Amino acid sequence: PNTNISLITAAHPGTLPKLNKKAVELAVRLGVALNCQIEKENFFARKNYFYPDLPKGYQISQHTAPICKGGSVSVELTEGEKNITLNRIHIEEDAGKSIHDMDDRYTCIDLNRSGVALVEIVTEPVIHSSDEAFLFLTNLRNILRWLDVCDGNMEEGSMRCDANISIRLKGETELGKRVEIKNLNSIRNVKRAIDLEFHRLVSLV
Questions:
Q1: What CA–CA distance (Å, rounded) separates 66 from 137?
Q2: Rounded to two decimals, what is the model's pTM?
Q3: Taking a C-beta distance cutoff of 8 angstroms, is the pair 83, 139 a contact?
Q4: Which run of H or E residues covers position 21?
Q5: Which helix or strand (DSSP H or E) is residue 23 part of?
Q6: What's the rounded Cα separation, in Å, for the pair 119 and 152?
Q7: pLDDT tens, residue by residue, 87-103
Q8: Collapsing DSSP states into helix, strand and coil, what is residue 184?
Q9: Distance of CA 155 to CAs 51, 68, 141, 158, 188, Å?
Q10: In the beta sheet, which residues pair with residue 85?
């Protein structure tokens, strides 16, 4: 822990961020494979928020101008093939890692991955079950591995999933308030979390 920290990561006065060329190449490679529209002009912005494992007090992200737009990942369902459409793929920097179970009184912070480039892949709200989410993540991980974008090892944090879940009454078109479950570390756990949250939301409604 805390052995691979640069002056930029630690936000020392006078330091400025630097774009990771390899991260751009890998993001474009992924975008081409998923039939995205590759944006020629890219912009980065600061997302300002306090987080104990974010030394700068802001995160650099392409949230408003992603490098890839659209695209899809196909999954094979019992009723046939379905394309899970993507909203975007954008580049941003990772935060550090907060560890809550090493000490009874304190949260421990490892800043080794703080500032490391990552791509965030955002789908449209077209996944309608935990089974579809399971298949989507399985296929996506296979693609990431085949393209050598990342090893896809979720238990090591190489790939993580934030699942947004919302429900609606039968016959209605507008989705209810969504709940986001952050940083799930296995495809099986994503499926379990979606099922659990679905039943919780149904019981609340």
A1: 21
A2: 0.91
A3: no
A4: helix 21-33
A5: helix 21-33
A6: 12
A7: 999 999 998 888 999 99
A8: strand
A9: 23, 27, 13, 8, 11
A10: 72
